[in-house]
Amino acid sequence: MIENGQQVDPSVIALEAKSQSTWNEELAPHIKLGESTPMTTAEKMDQKRLTKHASKEARKAQREQDRNGRSERWGKKWSSFKESVSGAWNKTKDVVKAIPDVPSKTVDFVEDAYDASATYINGHAVRAVNKVNNVTTNWGDEVTAAANFINSLGANLKHSYNQERLVARADTLKSVANNIVSPDVATDAGAEDQLLAGMDKASEIANKIKDLEDQLAAARAQQGKLKKAGGWLKKFLS
Amino acid sequence: MTKQQLFDGLVEQGLDQEAIDVVKQAAESMPDELTTENIQSVTELIDEMEQAELILERSYEQEIEANDRAFESIMDIGDEYVAASAAQTVADIEMVNTLVGAE
User: Fold this and answer.
1) Mean pLDDT of the residues in chain A
2) Who wins on pLDDT, B44 or A48?
3) What is the structure's pLDDT at A82?
4) Residue B67: its pLDDT value, please?
5) Do residues B70 and A136 make contact, with C-beta atoms less than 8 angstroms apart?
6) Contact criterion met (CB < 8 Å) for A150 and B55
7) A149 has a chain B CB within 8 A of its CB
8) Of the listed ranges A170-184, B35-49, B55-69, the one predicted with least confidence
């Protein structure tokens, strides 16, 4: 392997990388790392914490990047979806119309093909609707758990200002959970209609995320101000 | 430190009026010249409010993450559906073409 114009043994690079990142003496006691001192338990814990933090930050950055492209992705998916659902039969019909003299056998076949496709696509739509409902139900469960968590903390907090804010937030979360657990999808509608309704739900989710991000930014700003004010006051106590 | 100095100081630190009103309410029964105990009590109140904001932050983060997962899952389902129906349509068209060609 060539690095900076010099021939380098790949095993040396691998060993150096290990020593700089996740070296674990317990897992490989037979390998000695030159003059370096073995890490203490506290250092190992500290390193673990730093690694965990770095990984969390990386996930956060990835999510942020994903969110930035959400609207665009949704728009593309929506057009593609509508084309697929509404345009599928038209495409097949266009092909048939383009044939000047359609033999009777072909007409029968095309009709059969329509039926077969309808059954196939409808079956797929039903499965997709079930998946959407499962996803939203699970989401509802998570949000309910978050609301219960906030409720339990709110009861322990001393000041009514905090209690009111937290309990109000818990109520909002519960209400969101209830809306999601019972998606507004007519049970007697066709599978495709139900799937379209499920996709509408995704659009609502995208808008909801935008609102939540605004609220999160406001809570972060408020938390920062309170931290600053608390730090200022503590100077008078020392 | 006087109460007024406390309130002015909190404004200088950028605290919102809503939060300052809470501090004012808590400081109502305190003397104009605040004791160390009084300042300690206000500090604890502000710490508690900060803690509440952190809890709210976590709840928003949790809800956003759950929403993200739901959104991504639905997008994946949409992908599957679009691919399946498009594949079926293409297969139909190809079969019709083949049959017409054969007759």
Assistant:
1) 67
2) B44
3) 58
4) 77
5) yes
6) yes
7) yes
8) A170-184
**Which pairs from B46-51 meet CB under 8 Å and 24+ separation?**
B46/A226, B46/A229, B46/A230, B46/A233, B46/B19, B47/A230, B48/A157, B48/A158, B48/A159, B48/A162, B49/A159, B49/A161, B49/A162, B49/A226, B49/B19, B49/B22, B50/A223, B50/A226, B50/A227, B50/A230, B51/A157, B51/A162
Task: State the pLDDT at residue A224.
Answer: 93
Q: Which two tokens stand for residue B53?
A: 């904001």
Q: What mean pLDDT comes out for the span A24-44? A: 55
Give the pLDDT band of residue A17 (cuts 50, 70, 90): very low
CB contact under 8 A, B48 and A132: no
Beta-ladder partners of A67? none
Q: Give the contacts of B88 (CB within 8 A, at least 6 positions apart).
A: A88, A117, A120, A121
Dihedral pair phi/psi, residue A190, rounded to 5°: -70, 160
- A117 interface with B at CB cutoff 8 Å: yes
* DSSP 8-state code for residue A66: H
Structure tokens at A172: 């909002």
Instruction: Report DSSP letters for A152-219, one per residue.
Output: HHHHH-S-HHHHHHHHHHHHHHHHHHHHHHS----TTS-HHHHHHHHHHHHHHHHHHHHHHHHHHHHH
> What SS3 class is residue A27?
coil
The pTM of the full predicted model, rounded to 2 decimals, is: 0.59
Q: What one-character DSSP code corresponds to residue A36? A: P
In this structure, chain B runs to a length of 103
pLDDT digits (tens, 9 = 90+) for A158-197: 677 777 788 888 887 777 666 665 444 445 556 666 666 6
Distance separating alpha carbons of residues A77 and A196, to the nearest angstrom? 12
- The H or E element that residue A2 is part of is strand A2-3
Nearest residue in A to B51, CA atom = A223
Residue A212: name the closest of A183, A164, A176 by CA. A176
Tokens of residue B42, six digits: 């206000």
For chain A, the structural domain boundaries read 122-204
Tell me, yes or no, if A157 comes closer than 8 A to chain B by beta carbon: yes
Among the listed residues B43, B62, B52, B60, the one whose alpha carbon sits nearest the alpha carbon of residue A156: B52
Comparing B33 with A35, the larger pLDDT belongs to: B33
